[in-house]
């Protein structure tokens, strides 16, 4: 059975305090892994797609990496506007996104 | 580029009533998804369309939920009759083709009382 686990469930950081979010997965025929950001009351917003182990993508203070079992979202020197829920979604061999429950990030000024 | 449009934004109904949600995807996107997101959880796929055909509806409670995508563009999701546990945000998303990034609408927050 396809499974996705994100940790931690919630994370509070001081502005400028770097950290990493984890996404562990067991998915048949993985075709890619997607990261989304979700603000309260809004739909998820696309951040990155990773297709193969060893691949890295960067956008501003965020960097996503992928291994065969996990993906990490590294956040460097975060700002309060980075506060959101971050969702990972591996794409299965049948082109089905399997969303994790997310990590709620709060960055304090 | 216009995003995914959904309506209504909010809906409150009594249990056993019916409700319908509407979605207009990004122009040219062949794949359309309906997700259910319960508070504190990630989105759960209800149904996936490719053009106007159903690709995956394995997690759609077919005794009460139905969805259609006429002419491969707009889509509607209906619940009849609603139960208390259907209270959630219903998200519509679209992508150019399977495997590409999905773009989400703002969702419809349904409260069943």
Descriptive tags:
heterodimer; A: 109 residues; mainly beta; Immunoglobulin-like; 5-stranded mixed sheet; 10 strands; 55% strand; globular; B: 113 residues; 7-stranded mixed sheet; 11 strands
What is the largest interface, and how many residues per chain? A-B, 23 and 23 residues
Low-pLDDT residue intervals, each spanning 5 or more residues of chain B: none
> What average pLDDT do the residues of chain A reach?
96
CATH topology label of chain A: Immunoglobulin-like
Shape of chain B: globular
Radius of gyration of chain A: 13 Å
What do you see in this structure?
The complex is a heterodimer of chains A (109) and B (113). Chain A has one domain: Immunoglobulin-like, CATH 2.60.40. Chain A is 0% helix and 55% strand. Chain A contains no helices and ten strands. A five-stranded antiparallel β-sheet of chain A has the order 1-3-8-7-6, with no helix packed on it. Chain A has a five-stranded mixed β-sheet with strand order 2-10-9-4-5, with no helix packed on it. In chain A, β7 and β8 form a beta hairpin. The model of chain A has no long low-confidence stretch (mean pLDDT 96). Chain B has 113 residues and is mostly beta strands. Chain B has a single domain, classed as Immunoglobulins (Immunoglobulin-like, Sandwich), CATH 2.60.40. Chain B contains no helices and eleven strands. In chain B, strands 2, 4, 5, 6, 9, 10 and 11 form a seven-stranded mixed β-sheet that branches. A four-stranded antiparallel β-sheet of chain B has the order 1-3-8-7, with no helix packed on it. Chain B is globular, with a radius of gyration of 13 Å. The model of chain B has no long low-confidence stretch (mean pLDDT 95). At the A-B interface, β4, β5 and β9 of A face β5 and β10 of B.
